[in-house]
Specification:
With about 500 residues, this protein is of the alpha/beta class. It has one domain: Alkaline Phosphatase, subunit A. About 30% of the residues lie in helices and about 10% in strands. The strands form four sheets. It has an eight-stranded mixed sheet with strand order 6-5-7-1-8-11-4-12, sandwiched between helices. A hairpin with a 4-residue loop joins strand 2 and strand 3. Helix 7 packs antiparallel against helix 8 and helix 10 packs parallel to helix 11. The chain starts with a helix and ends in a 15-residue tail after the last strand. The relative contact order is 0.21.
Length: about 500
């Protein structure tokens, strides 16, 4: 009787790294889900691009907590006129924390930028240098005003967990451009994960190698569990991994139908290659001085204040942006950068129920400095023409006040923006109403449409990129979504 591949690998013994692999496989055996792929996954694979791509990669900037469109991107003079008056929406409004106080004008002044004259709030003014390359979507809507559900919708296309992140779909659809690095990388907030944690970037029912690799730039351990507990000479480690690879593949050839173990082996082999490739990709000290100055990284990290502050936000977000550029130029296809962690007090995210100036101010200034530097850097290197930069959040904030200085959740309308490969710059697509409460046409743009557009720019048809699961051809856009033609150059 032939042992299963899993059993054989668990029995490989202590030398040459077998114990580590066996331990990992035993742990996975305890945690693997009961549901399995119904058929050979290759039968459902639609890897070939359906049309010529306009972009090769995506850098997504995600503001966790609900960034306010009204105070950063979407100027509403009517709120200035009505400021302080009792709010009246003309209909019953269900809010998250009963934030229906008086109308609240934008916290900061707005000024025009670029040839297109786009009005931006003062904290995000550094991005004014790039508004002629940016397309704004001002009529985004979400299906939920709850952080966990709205965040999942923006990251996976579904409000419930158990579905692959957008980057996992891109990895599945396009494959790797560099076997030494992951196809999908996430750079979380330095204080912790956002709502839902790894569920936002998991592979779910796709093969495990398509899940994101989380990297924490500037920390002692940027990639968890990557290095062995004891130092091993590089030559010996290479030989160890090569022998394990040969044994894995030899046995795999006798059991071609175990897709989950194939994926697991691929993930562990990637981890081995990462040990050699990651240090070069993550070490920004070899960047020229003018690049470090561009990102504001020339002096290195400092001892930050305990309260949220612009210096800290500027440094850590800019560092992630620079690392993202280094990753995509080495072949990583999808990098997701997070600003803000899950709810905590004092606030460490964009969920400004209490005080917009206190929370949004430092976060927005830090984000804008890093994002502006990233776009400049990409443009100088010729990478912006085939890289999409996408800024998003799970929902916006209400035009009424909460507690005088904050705003409640607004899933009814908010803002996204995109620039780079295939994007028509200097335009705004879709409008919110005069109060920034709902889309002007009451229809709005959904996350499905953004996802469909991103896939289109990468040369993928969102309706054809599928995976058979529970009798359904699952896709990133569920049964919805259309390419937003107004965004395309």
């Amino acid at each position: 009787m032939h042992p299963s591949r899993r059993e054989l690998l668990q029995q490989l013994g202590g030398g040459l790294g077998g114990i580590a692999l066996a331990s990992l496989l035993q742990r996975d055996a305890r945690s693997v889900t009961r549901g399995t792929q119904e058929s050979d996954p290759r039968a459902a694979l639609h890897r070939a691009r359906t049309h010529a791509p306009r972009a090769q990669r995506v850098i997504q900037l995600f503001m966790a907590g609900g960034a306010s469109h009204l105070d950063l991107w979407d100027w509403k003079p009517e709120l200035v006129r009505l400021h302080g008056q009792p709010s009246d929406f003309g209909e019953a409004v269900e809010t998250f924390q009963d934030g229906l106080g008086p109308w609240l004008k934008p916290i900061w002044e707005f000024r025009p930028h670029g040839r297109c004259g786009k009005l931006l709030g003062e904290p995000v003014a550094p991005l004014g240098a790039h508004v002629d390359d940016i397309a704004f979507v001002h009529d985004m809507v979400s299906a939920s005003g709850v952080h966990s559900q709205a965040t999942l919708l923006a990251t996976t296309g579904f409000t419930q967990p158990g579905f692959p992140g957008a980057g996992a779909w891109v990895s599945y659809g396009l494959g790797s451009a560099n076997e030494e690095l992951p196809t999908f990388v996430v750079l979380p907030d330095h204080r912790g994960h956002p709502s839902n944690g790894v569920k936002n970037w998991d592979a779910a029912f796709l093969p495990g190698q398509h899940a994101a690799t989380a990297i924490y730039p500037g920390t002692a351990t940027p990639i968890a569990h990557l290095k062995a507990a004891r130092a091993t000479p590089e030559e010996r480690e290479r030989a160890t991994h090569e022998l394990l690879r040969e044994m894995n593949r030899a046995h795999a050839s006798t059991r071609p139908d175990d897709a989950r173990l194939d994926a697991r082996i691929a993930s562990y082999e990637l981890a081995a290659r990462l040990q050699l490739a990651a240090p070069d990709a993550l070490d920004v000290r070899d960047e020229p001085e003018h690049v470090l100055r561009l990102y504001g990284l020339e002096r290195g990290p400092e001892l930050w204040e305990s309260e949220i502050n612009a210096a800290e936000e500027s440094y850590v977000f800019a560092l992630k942006c620079l690392v993202a550029r280094r990753l995509i130029e080495r072949g990583v296809r999808f990098v997701q950068i997070w600003s803000g962690n899950d709810n905590s007090f004092p606030r460490r995210n964009w969920d400004s129920h209490e005080d917009l100036r206190r929370d949004h101010g430092p976060l927005a200034r830090g984000m804008a400095r890093g994002a502006a530097a990233l776009i400049t850097d990409l443009k100088c290197r010729g990478l912006l023409e085939d890289t999409v930069v996408h800024w998003t959040t799970e929902f916006g904030r209400m035009p009424s006040s909460q507690g005088g200085k904050g705003r409640d959740h607004n899933p009814f309308v908010f803002t996204n923006w995109l620039c780079g490969g295939g994007i028509r710059g200097g335009v705004s697509v879709g409008e919110s109403d005069e109060l920034g409460y709902k889309p002007r046409d009451r229809k709005g743009t959904q996350a499905y449409d953004i996802h469909a557009t991103l896939l289109h720019l990468l040369g993928l048809d969102h309706e054809q990129l599928t995976w058979r699961r529970d009798g359904i051809d699952r896709r990133l856009t569920d049964v919805h979504g259309h390419v937003i033609e107004g965004l395309l150059a």
